[in-house]
Design goal:
DNA-binding, elongated, Tetracycline Repressor, domain 2, 188 residues, mainly alpha, homodimer
Chain lengths: 188, 188
DNA sequence: GTCTATAAATCGATAGAC
DNA sequence: GTCTATCGATTTATAGAC
């Protein structure tokens, strides 16, 4: 690791962004958390816009890896879908945190257009992955009542994201569980 | 009555909050929009926290009325559900705006706890209304495949909210439509 | 009720020493 | 790479005249 400080800044910023939103933390907060002075942050990330791009880039790759890992560890449609839902449940962190994409969605006006594009690509990737999972579940019979896998994906991703947002608002992960119950009841 | 300054401030603040988020507008912006000086706003709303409470209070009543109006104008489960989806589609304003509750969900850290409680009550009201609609649709046969109305409601509200958020992020109302397609295909 | 004027704090960002 | 010091802009909020 040639630059440990940079990684520490990304970690701190991601944690802050996912719990408080992109406008909910400052360079001052990061500095205190990481243990350097705030002016020093500009050496690693010249602007907060540059930091947001780096955060989203890393997050994209992280979720892409997570989906690939799910594919390796599970070989049915239902178990893969359940694993993804579990990933989002974990990201909730007991009702305090959001997926970075959902969190950034709430501050679009403060983000550079490049990040908006990154978020669009992120959601496309997730939709493609979900479509493949629903298709597999339809073919292997582990997901009930799948007519159109792409339509299922288009409905499922916003539901997961919306449920996460609602659960975080009330700091109650139970809200996420209730929202997932109907979908989970279709898995075998 | 529409020339009332307090109402004009609420209108301006609601528009700004739903497009830019609660932290996306300032008293300075409101002042310019309404045509008074920013210090004068404090006479109507002593703090931004007080303004947020008034906004959410008005929004709760507005949606409660909208649901009651839907009940009056439509008498089947499917037409009532379609009318609510249409209401949220309209609130999207071509991909630029959000339901106030979703918008506020994205700035929870900046809001007084009273507003968090108001949002909780708002979502409870919507869940109750949706449950009743799914129950009616199950009984009158206009919504396909309803096993548990409360579970359907718990999944549907976050889906609508999440779809609105995604569509606003990419400024593309088509994303909202795609997310609703599966649910709409169950209506008769 | 609205105004001018200003306080007090915080923000992202820059310059330049070491 | 990190530091001190500071800038300029913006924020919510207050005091007091009219």
């Amino acid at each position: 690791m040639p630059n440990d400080t940079k990684t520490a800044l990304l970690d701190s910023a991601e944690r802050a962004a996912r719990t408080l939103g992109f406008n909910g933390f400052s360079y001052s907060d990061l500095a205190e958390d990481v243990g350097i002075r705030k002016a020093s942050i500009h050496h690693h990330f010249p602007s907060k816009a540059a930091l947001s791009i780096a955060l989203m880039e890393r997050y994209y790759q992280s979720l892409e890896s997570a989906c690939a890992k799910i594919d390796l560890e599970h070989d049915t449609g239902s178990t893969r879908l359940a694993a993804l839902i579990n990933t989002y449940y974990g990201a909730l962190d007991d009702g305090q945190s959001l997926c970075l994409c959902v969190s950034f969605s709430t501050s679009t006006e403060s983000l550079p257009s490049e990040v908006i594009d990154q978020m669009s690509r992120f959601r496309s990737m997730m939709l493609n992955w979900l479509s493949a999972v629903f298709l597999l579940g339809k073919e292997d019979g582990t997901i009930e009542n799948v007519a159109d896998p792409a339509l299922e994906a288009s409905a499922t991703l916003p539901m997961i994201e919306g449920a996460q947002l609602a659960a975080r608002t009330e700091k109650n992960p139970q809200l996420f569980d209730s929202a997932m119950k109907l979908l989970l009841s279709r898995l075998h």
